[in-house]
Amino acid sequence: MKLTFRWYGLNDSIPLAYIREIPSLSGVVTSVYDVKPGEVWPKESLQVLKEACDNKGLKMEVIESIPVVEEIKYGGENRDHYIEVFKENLRRVAAVGVKCVCYNFMPVFDWVRSDLGHVNEDGSTSLSYSEKELKKYDPHNLHLPGWDESYSRDELSRLLSIYQGMSHEELFNNLVYFLNAISSTLEETGINMAIHPDDPPWDIFSLPRIASKEEDFKRLFEAVPNSHNGMTLCVGSLGECKENDVVKMADEFSKEGRIYFAHLRNIRYEGDGFVESGHETADGSLDMAAIVEALVKNGFDGYVRPDHGRNIFGEQGKPGYGLFDRALGCTYITGLFEMAERKKKEGK
Fold first, then answer.
1. CB of 66 within 8 A of CB of 86?
2. Which of 65, 132, 254, 325 lies in disulfide reach of 309, CB 3.0 to 4.6 Å?
3. pTM score > 0.85 for this model?
4. Of all helices (H) and strands (E), which one includes residue 245?
5. DSSP for residue 112
6. Local confidence band at 138 (pLDDT 50, 70, 90 cut-offs)
7. What Cα–Cα distance (Å) separates residue 87 from each residue in 39, 83, 156, 184, 249?
């Protein structure tokens, strides 16, 4: 596997010099953050990021993400234009050595939490989700924790109106349309597309979600069998739904060669939702060791990163994306892979 670390570009509070000191790290996962969704990324912006990484001996082979604009998701009249823009961005990231693009197909909202500063027993803070708390929010006048409020109130109401009544089938068909439309560009560039699971993996504010469960991904890979169509195994997102057998999904989809990227983090079921815990198996509700063993057993050699760490040691910064706990996550993940690979070699 190739261990990576999420980096929010030159304006990230965590400099590449610190990231470089994390043991076993091969590179960073980043994006172009100063361009509006649906616009072509400047080659100069990508080159600046690439050179910054190169100067620290870090590879920049994963982009998370090139945004899929809403018009592609709801199948608007201009979706073909935006697909062409997406294809051009694929060519441009490939030109600087990118091999994998993580993306999502969640309408309007991507990850949703009800609290960004849940206080844990050990004094650390982390992200959490409560269904009861979420129901208190008005989606037409939203001030949701962590959501960047990128839409005005009118724009948000317009989008919610467009999606009103949209079925899961319609949204799925729009995803298939998008992937088929970019297939030739994936062949041309060699880039693997890794869809991120819905987070949380169920409908939010009556908006359909279609990448939540094992059968969703099976259906997608059958509908678009192109070998560049794969997934990001975000075990935290998938694990938020107790019905998901994440170990089984790791085993099945790595055996099929459909996992190109893995976000390895743990969550703990609590109340009517979940809390994002430390990465270790003992800290949460997911068997991290078994998940990694399933990946190793099937020869997984893709990209991995820690995800949504706690804020610890008094660190103040972007919730879920501090340095310290994610660095601890990196060392834990490295240890899990070392032991799993040794067991595989010894035939255990």
1. yes
2. 325
3. yes
4. none
5. -
6. confident
7. 11, 6, 26, 9, 29
Crossing angle of the two packed helices 79-95 and 43-55, in degrees rounded to 10: 30
Cis peptide leading into 200, omega within 30 of 0? yes
Q: What CATH number corresponds to the domain at position 105? A: 3.20.20.150
Q: What is the mean pLDDT of the chain?
A: 93
Q: Which residue would you say has higher pLDDT here, 297 or 111?
A: 297
What is the distance between the alpha carbons of residues 90 and 191, in angstroms, rounded to a whole number? 8
pLDDT at 134 over 90: no
Q: What's the total number of domains in the chain? A: 1
Per-residue exposure over 123-158, b if at least 16 CB sit within 10 Å of its own CB, e if not: ebbbbbbbeebbeebebeebebbbbeeebeeeebee
Identify the pLDDT of residue 149: 59
pLDDT band at 151 (very low <50, low <70, confident <90, very high): confident
The domain containing residue 181 runs over which residues? 2-345
Structure-token pair, residue 93: 């990231």
Rounded Cα distance, 275 and 309, in Å: 11
Chain position carrying tokens 């982009």: 63
> Using CA atoms, how far apart are residues 276 and 281, in angstroms rounded to an integer?
12
Written as one letter, the residue type at 120 is N
Helices (H), the chain: 16-19, 43-55, 70-74, 79-95, 131-134, 153-163, 168-189, 214-223, 235-239, 246-255, 288-297, 324-345
Looking at the chain, the whole-number percentage of residues with pLDDT higher than 70 is 97
